[in-house]
Amino acid sequence: MNPSTFDAISAVLVEQFKVEAGAVRPQVALDQLGLDSLALMEFVFAVEDRFDVRIPEDRLDPRQAGVTLEQLAALLDEAIAAKPTRDVVSG
Amino acid sequence: MSSAARTPASARVAVTGAGVVSPIGNDLAAFDEALFAGRSAVRAHALDLPGIDLPAVPVAAAEFDVAAVVAPSRVPLDRGTAMALTAADDAARQAKLVAGGFDPERLGIFWGSGMAGAATFEMTCRTVYAERRRMRPTSVVTTMPNAAVAEIALRFGARGAALAYACACASSAVAIGEAMRAIRAGWIDVAIAGGSESLLTPGVLASWQAMRVLTPLAAGADREASAQRACRPFAADRAGFALGEAAAAFVLESADHADARGATRRFDLAGYSTNCDGVHITQPDAAGQARAMRAALADAGLSADAIGYLNAHGTATTAGDAAEAESIASVFGSNGVPVSSTKAIHGHLLGAGGAVELLAAARALASARLPPTANVERVDPAFAMDLVTGAARSNAGLAAVMSNSFAFGGTNAVLIATRAPQ
To answer: What is the pLDDT of residues B284-296, one digit of tens each?
Structure first.
């Protein structure tokens, strides 16, 4: 898990969904965040948009019990790695 | 019609709390200060859109941080809904309405908004059309007209009726009046009632500008000064209004319920009426307005001369003010009642207007002062009306006030507030 990915997830949960910062830990499951299924869907959209990626639906159903933030971060990392690389021109 | 008790005093509904988020203040002290000083919160707002000649329009925005509001549903909030929640929280706090102090099945939520989540929908659609991105899963629940009702009901665990009223600029006056009726009828004991509107987004502003009802602003260095005095209700040189954003909420209770829990009665709602002109989609009709004012007086069991202050709808459009000046004169006689329109300072608050202007009238009642109509140098000589201009006017004997709300679509709503018994 890329720590910066987890940090970004954490920021979205705290800032947009008002989850207590202390409750946001890698091993915490999505269904333990105090968010209902609609808010969880909105949360996953928000983090996907933050990285401009999509996690395929067959890889993640946020309503499924037990999916942890760590697993979500790993799925995001996979999606980020799979993004077509853009030519980077320095300067 | 006499002031004899056509309506029993028990039918007066107690108001035990009020909360507000508005361009002229987010608490009652700040609201009063601007209200009685006649200090305008209208500013020039740049608008750079295709097909619009005006570089700026007059707007009255509230100082409000939507990100600071936690939604009971935990979903992102429409700005107007966040204002609604804040106003409702403040009203409940003033009323000391806390869990355990009421029967949830006897608490109703009655809320008005003209276009509710239109601003959120506009910005959300922009992600689809302009940015080619997907819609969010919460687009529906943040946009729906009953979004504010739903969030307030969740906040307070309301199990009684939770109803949204959409009748343009009369929406929140109707919501408050219908809550009053529900309490009088014994359907509920307590209501949180009011309205909200926050539509200061490019598409909505452009829609109003296209109707030619927003006051054109001066160019160059005079623009800001012309924005502050853009709205001049009942003035000879009136030229339209400014759009504003706000929410106001009240806790309404049966007098018995308020007394039983030891709540302070801030003022009473004594009369309400709503009707429809049934004449035109936008043109006001003095006859319909007069019928509504007379019906509200009858509902309160008051004669016209009992009303010591009238907060007019007063939009500062040519046709709107002319019709209202005529209807007021037909009910109260020439110069028959002191009138002001506070839209001059807080802008046209659309669906929230009735609630904020009832609050303005109630503050007049509480402080025995009549707020002035700002920006008016010369009252239209065609109007035989006692317009309060310049400074606030004292009236130590003020005992009953009226607030008018007249909407596109022809809906009229009139509320009458009276001093609570000491």
So the answer is: 999 999 999 999 9
